[in-house]
Design a protein that fits this description.
The protein is mostly helical. The protein is built from ten helices and no strands. The chain has helices at 2-25, 29-45, 53-69, 73-97, 111-122, 130-134, 136-166, 186-189, 193-205, 209-223. The radius of gyration is 19 Å and the shape is flat.
Amino acid sequence: KNKDKDEYLALLASAHAFLGELLIEDERNDDALTEFNKAIELQNKCKPTIIKCRSKASNHFMACLAAQFADKDDEAVQHCDAALKGLSERISGLLTQFECTDSTEMKENDYQQVIKVAEDFMGDNEKFNDEKKNSEDGKELKDIVGIMGDLCAKLEEVKEIIQLKKDGKYGNDTKQGDAAAPSGFDAQLMMDPLQALISGLTSKFGINEEQLAAMREEDEGDDE
C-alpha cells in the first residue's frame, strides 16, 4: 500500500511539474513556480528509491527559471543550489560505489571540485572500465555530471544578475520565450490548457483516467 501511495505521489508530482512547464511557456511565472514547488514537495514525501535524483534536480531547475522570470532572484538561487546539492550527493554516492578513492576528500558543496573529480575518474579507462561505463549507474554518472556543469553555469548567471541589479547596471533584453523550452510542447500548447494537460499526462506519463481520479483525490486530501 505504501509503495502504491509513493507511486501515486510521484505521478502527482509529475502532473504538477508538467502543468508548471505549461504555465512557464504561457509566462504565468508565479503560478508556474507554485506548481514546481508543489511537485518538489510531493517528491520529498516519496521514498528516495521512487524519485530519481535527475527528476528532482529538473524540477528545482525549472523552479529556478520560473523564479528568475518572476524577478524572485533569491528563490531562484535557492532552487539552483538545491538541485546542485542533490546532484552532488548522488555523484558522491556513485563514485564511492565505483571505489573512486578521490571521492573521500570531496566537499559536496564545492560543486566544481565534485565535477572535476568525477570527470577525472570517468576519463581514466582503467578505473572507469567498459563494464562500469555501460552499467546503469555508469550511464547515470555521466548524465548527471553533464547536468551539474550546466547548473553551475546557471547559478553563476543568476548570481551575476543579482549583483548587476544591486549595482543598477542590469538591463534585461532577453525575452522569456528565448529560454530553452522542454521538447514536445508546441502541439500541446495549441490546445485548450486543460486538454493539453490531460493529453500530456497520458502521452508523457502513461496516466489513465482512473489514475487521474486517484491523483486528484490524493491532491485534494493533501490540501485539507
